[in-house]
Design goal:
Shape: flat
Mean pLDDT: 87
Strand content: under 5%
Helix content: 55-70%
Number of domains: 2
Radius of gyration: 21 Å
Structural class: mainly alpha
Length: 100
């Protein structure tokens, strides 16, 4: 796999943070920048591909969108399982009301 040169402009604050990371990792800033870009690209590519797959499933009738009430019910169920406390109140990480 070949490599190509890419020139970018960064905000001073971003470059300073990158230097801190590079020093802590005992790497140069080019390595940190390359890894950050590669990881971001992989993540975004995965999201796009998975979204395309799910949309194709929906278009083919193999899946459907979940309604708001279904999503809230599943979220409450998961929160209860994680907390081990039974019912989760309307105030907290999963409120269904935009709170928390």
């Amino acid at each position: 796999m070949g490599k190509q040169l890419l020139s970018i402009r960064l905000e001073d604050e971003t470059l300073e943070k990158m230097k801190v990371i590079a020093e802590a990792c005992e790497r140069d800033t080019a390595y940190i920048a390359r890894k950050a870009i590669e990881e971001h690209i992989e993540r975004e590519h995965w999201v796009i591909e998975e979204t395309r797959k799910r949309m194709a499933d929906i278009d083919q009738g193999k899946a459907s969108f979940a309604g708001n009430e279904d999503v809230k019910a599943r979220a409450y169920k998961r929160a209860e399982a994680v907390s081990g406390k039974g019912a989760v109140s309307g105030k907290g990480a999963v409120s269904g009301k935009g709170e928390g």
